Amino acid sequence: LPIMLSNFMMTFYNLTDAFWLGKLGDEAMNAVSVAGLTFPLIFFLSSFGIGFVVAGTALISQFKGAGTPGMMKKVVGQFILILIAFSIIFLSFSFIFLDSILGLLHVPQEIFEVSKQFISYILVGVLFMFIFLTYQSFAHGLGDTISPMKIQIISVSLNVILDPIFIFGIGFMPRMETVGAAQATLISRIVAAILAVYFLKKKTKHIIPNLNELKPDKELLKKIFNISFPASIAHSVTSFGFIILQGFVNTYGTLVISVFSIGNRMMGLFMMPAMGISNALATIVGQNLGAKKISRAVKSVGVGMILVLLIMLVGCSLLYFFGSTLTRFFIDDPAIAGVGERMFKVVSFAALIFSVMFVFMGVFNGSGHTKPAMLLNISRLWFFRIPLVFVLSGKILEYAFIRDSFLNEILTKLSIPLSEHSYDALWWSMLISNILTTIMAIIIYRKGKWKAGSI
Q1: Is 39 a residue whose pLDDT tops 70?
Q2: What is the pLDDT of residues 49-102, one digit of tens each?
Q3: What backbone torsions phi and psi does residue 233 show, to the nearest 5 degrees?
Q4: CA triplet 97, 98, 100: central angle to 5 degrees?
Q5: How many Cβ atoms are within 10 Å of 170's Cβ, its own excluded?
Q6: What is the pLDDT of residue 231?
Q7: Which of 216, 211, 208 is nearest to 138 (CA)?
C-alpha cells in the first residue's frame, strides 16, 4: 500500500501539471501538448538510471535475506559512485542533443521553443529525482516502504501548491504559464532529494558506507551492471519506442497530442496498484531467494496476482465507463472528449492485461533476472505495438516499397476498420501487444530460471 501511494504521488506530478495547464484558456491545448511530449523524452533520457534502481532493490533485498549487512554497505558505496558518473553524462548528453531530439520528434513549430524551455527544467529535475529513487530502491530492498512514501507526499504536496502559483502568477510571482509548471516540479524534486539524504542518514545508518567502501569494487560493479544493463536497455529501447510513437501522434496535431497525453497520465494513475504490488513483490521475492525460501517466493506471486486482478478490475471498469468524463476533467472540449471516450474503451482492457505482466516483471526484477524483463519490454513495443500502429493506421502504405509489393492489398484491408479515425490504431495496438507479451511472460515464468536468484 505505501508503494502504491508513493507511485501515485509520482504520477500526481504530471497529473497536477496537466490539470492546471488545461486551465490556461486558449493556450490550454498547446500547454498540455508540451507537458505530454515531455514524458517519452524524459523516460528515454533517464532510462539507464532506472536500470540501476532495479539493481539496487534486487541486491539489497537478497543480501538482507542472506544476512550479509557488510555487502549492503558495499552496494550503497558503489551506487554513490555510479550516481555521480551518471549525473555528469546525463546532463551533458541531454543538453547537447536537445534541439536535435525535438526536431526528430516533429514537435510543432508553434510549441517548439516553450517545449525546449519546459524540458530543460525537467531534465535538471531528473537528477534530483534519481537521488530520491536510489534511496527508495535501498529502502524497498530493506522492506521499508513508509519512508519513501512520506517523502513523496511532502514533495507532491509542495508541487500541488506551487503549480498554480507559478503557472498563473499570484502575488509577487509573475505569470509563467507552461514553464512555471516545470519550475514547480524542479523545486519539488530538489526537496525530495534533500529529504532522501536525510532519511538515509536517519533511518538506515547501518547501510551507509565508510570511505573504504566508496572505492570501486570490480566484482560488485560487475554484478550491478549485469543486473542493471538489461533493465537499462529495456527501458531505453522502450522509451525510444515511445518517442517513435510520440512522433506518430504529433503528425495529427495538438488535438491527438492532448488526448494521448491525458491517456498516458490516466493509464499511469490507474496502473499504480499493479506497479505497487510489482515493486513489493520484487522485494519479497528477493529476500526469500536470498534466504533460500523458494516456495514462499512462489506463494507470494500467487497472492500478488490475485490482488492485482481484484484491484484492476475496479479501476479498468472506471476507465471504460467514465473515459469521456475523465478527459473533460483536464480539458473541457467536446472534440477532445470524443476522442478520449474511444480511447478509454480500448485502453481499459489493455491496462488490465498489462497489470498481469507487471506481476511477472516484479518477479524477474526481484530475482535479478532482468534479461526476461528486457525481452518482454522490447517485444511489446518494437515487435508488436509499433508495427501494429503503422499497419492498423494505414501509415505503412505511404512507403513506396510497400505500395509496390504483394503486401499492399493485405495491409490495405487491415487498415480499413480504423480508416475514419486512423489514430485509433494507437489504442488497439496497445491492447494487442499487451496480450501477446503477457502470454510470453507466463511462458518464461513457468520455466522457473528466476528461482536461482543473483547472489
Answers
A1: no
A2: 778 888 888 999 999 998 888 899 999 999 889 888 888 887 888 888 888 877
A3: -60, -45
A4: 70
A5: 11
A6: 84
A7: 208
- Cα distance from N-terminal residue to C-terminal residue, the chain: 28
Rounded Cα distance, 384 and 434, in Å: 9
Backbone phi and psi for residue 419, each to the nearest 5 degrees, phi listed first: -65, -30
Grid cell for residue 132: 530520491
Placement of cell 519506442 in the chain: 241
* 363 contacts: CB under 8 Å, gap ≥ 6: 281, 282, 285, 301, 445, 450
**Cell match 525535438: residue?**
102
Alpha helices for 331-369 (secondary structure H): 334-367
- pTM here is 0.74
Instruction: Give the span between the Cα atoms of 27 and 178, in whole angstroms.
Output: 9
Long-range contacts, 414-420 (Cβ 8 Å, 24+):
415/391, 417/392, 418/392, 418/393, 418/394, 419/394
Per-residue pLDDT reduced to its tens digit, 388-431 = 999 999 988 887 777 777 788 888 899 999 989 899 999 999 99
- 237-256 tens-digit pLDDT: 887 788 788 888 888 888 88
Closest CA to 12 of 123, 164, 159, 195: 159
Q: How far apart are CA 308 and CA 312, in angstroms?
A: 6
The values of phi and psi at residue 293, to 5°, are: -105, 75
Q: How many helices (H) and strands (E) does the chain have?
A: 18, 0
